[in-house]
Design goal:
By secondary structure, this protein is of the alpha+beta class. About 35% of the residues lie in helices and about 25% in strands. It has helices at about 5-15, 30-35, 65-75, 130-135, 155-165, 170-190, 230-235, 245-250, 270-280, 300-310, 330-340, 355-365, 375-390, and strands spanning about 20-25, 40-45, 60, 80, 90, 95-100, 100-115, 120-125, 145, 190-200, 210-215, 220, 255, 260-265, 290, 315-325, 350-355, 370-375. The strands form five sheets. Strands 7, 8, 9, 10, 11 and 12 form a six-stranded antiparallel β-sheet that branches. A four-stranded antiparallel β-sheet has the order 1-6-2-3, with helices on one face. The longest helix is centred in the middle third of the chain and has 20 residues, at about 170-190. The mean pLDDT is about 90. Bound molecules: adenosine-5'-diphosphate and magnesium ion (MG). Magnesium ion binds next to loops.
């Protein structure tokens, strides 16, 4: 699960990390009001994606009047970039926060290191821009420091990160405390990613000292651990989620929406991945990842169909089932019930194999539905691609 920047910053602050507070508003008038106490300020689009600055979703306002104009322009805009996909994200609220003068921008992230079963600190003095680009063009500029999940964060790991960022004196100590807090947050709240981009070094204060400050924050959580964090689950913003993905989660279906035109309905995550691969192998594009699970009922299959059909990009459906625990006749029954109830106007390619396959095929054959049956996965993928190409009108 993903949360907004303002929520992430509050969380950071509750762990003692340095981040400015602000006011979240939904109208330009409210932004103007909020700016009265803090001009100059920055108006920032609150949507579940990065790259807001480049897309025009972050603006400086020197007066409350400028805050009105900036908020008026940002609210209602659609941020479209690589992270959002072609549909983009509608801005419904903005954060009004203090404009910070800073000397330089850095990148600091923490994620799970699957290879090492620990945590990974990612630090780069090339902050502000997309870290993925830096990692590609100049891998040396991105330091990766492992933190043991058993021993926890240790000071020397913080010092290595400080060296990678070129921090000295009090900044070095500030980074060590910040990373200690970040590790605690990551472990206690089951985060899958904490990203601060940019982490900035401020201009000197009255005593001539500069400080570290988190200007942006993204935090992702492991969905499987949400049950033990009701405080985090309460931060969920349904409006930011893909409606299909949300519906799928209510039916306990693993669904990820993609940009292609072949809807996939598969049992088992591995088979679902292989199905997407084979569609791509033959030149097609899957519209989604969908695993109905090993114990799908007819009602689950029906919900899955509805989700696939909601996507207007879907021009053909490829059902790829290998009956193991799940029996082919149960799936076939679910498909027939769903198809006759919802009415499917696009080609349906079915590949069934495994337990009770003959019974399952008979149910499909006798259903009167127009089904294109496939002998194996490759055959199914080819037929689905052909069907999407020429039969895709609905
Ligand atoms: P995104 O990563 O979505 O583009 P950021 O919060 O990182 O959004 O903002 C983009 C850029 O805007 C930052 O790199 C920074 O240069 C500037 N910025 C963001 N917040 C502030 C702030 N409070 N004060 C001054 N500049 C800011
Ligand atoms: Mg950023």
């Amino acid at each position: 699960m993903n949360i907004h920047e303002y929520q992430a910053k509050e969380l950071l602050r509750s762990y003692g990390m340095p981040a400015c507070a602000g006011v979240v508003v939904e109208t330009a008038e409210a932004a103007q009001e909020a700016a009265k106490g803090m001009a100059p300020c920055v108006i920032k689009a609150q949507v579940h994606c990065g790259g807001r600055g480049k897309a025009g979703g972050v603006k400086l306002a020197r007066s409350p009047e400028e805050a009105f104009i900036a908020a008026d322009g940002i609210l209602g805009m659609r941020i479209v970039n690589r992270q959002t996909g072609p549909r983009g994200r509608l801005v419904r609220k903005v954060l009004v926060t203090e404009a910070v003068n800073y000397r330089r921008e850095m990148y600091l992230g923490m994620t799970i290191d699957n290879e090492d079963a620990g945590l990974l600190i990612i630090a780069s003095s090339a902050g502000g821009t997309e870290i993925e680009e830096t990692a590609k063009s100049d891998p040396q500029a991105v330091a990766r420091i492992r933190v043991s999940a058993v021993a926890g964060f240790r000071r020397y790991e913080g010092l290595r990160a400080a060296a990678a960022l070129g921090l000295e004196g009090n900044l070095k100590e500030e980074l060590v405390s910040l990373l200690a807090a970040m590790t605690r947050l990551c472990m206690e709240k089951d985060c899958s990613l904490i990203e601060i981009n940019p982490l900035v070094e401020t201009e000197p204060d009255e005593e001539g000292r500069t400080h570290l400050l988190c200007l942006d924050a993204k935090v992702n959580f492991d969905d499987n651990a949400l049950f033990r964090h009701p405080d985090i689950a309460a931060l969920r913003d349904i409006e930011e989620e893909d409606p299909n993905e949300h519906k799928a989660s209510q039916f306990d279906l693993s669904y990820v929406s993609l940009d292609g035109d072949i809807g996939c309905l598969v049992n088992g995550a591995g088979l679902a991945m292989a199905t997407m691969d084979i569609i791509k192998r033959f030149g097609g594009e899957p519209a989604n990842f969908l695993d109905v699970g090993g114990s799908a009922t007819a009602s689950k299959v029906k919900a899955a169909f509805e989700i696939l059909l909601c996507d207007s990009n879907v021009k053909a459906i490829f059902i790829n089932i290998f009956g193991g625990i799940m029996k082919c006749d149960v799936i076939a029954q679910g498909v027939v019930e769903a198809a006759s109830e919802i009415g499917i106007g696009i080609p349906l390619v079915v590949r069934l194999d495994g337990t009770n396959v003959e019974k399952g095929r008979a149910i499909l054959r006798n259903s009167g539905l127009r089904i294109i049956s496939a002998s194996d996965m490759a055959d199914g993928a080819r037929k689905a691609i052909a069907a999407a190409r020429d039969g895709g009108s609905r």
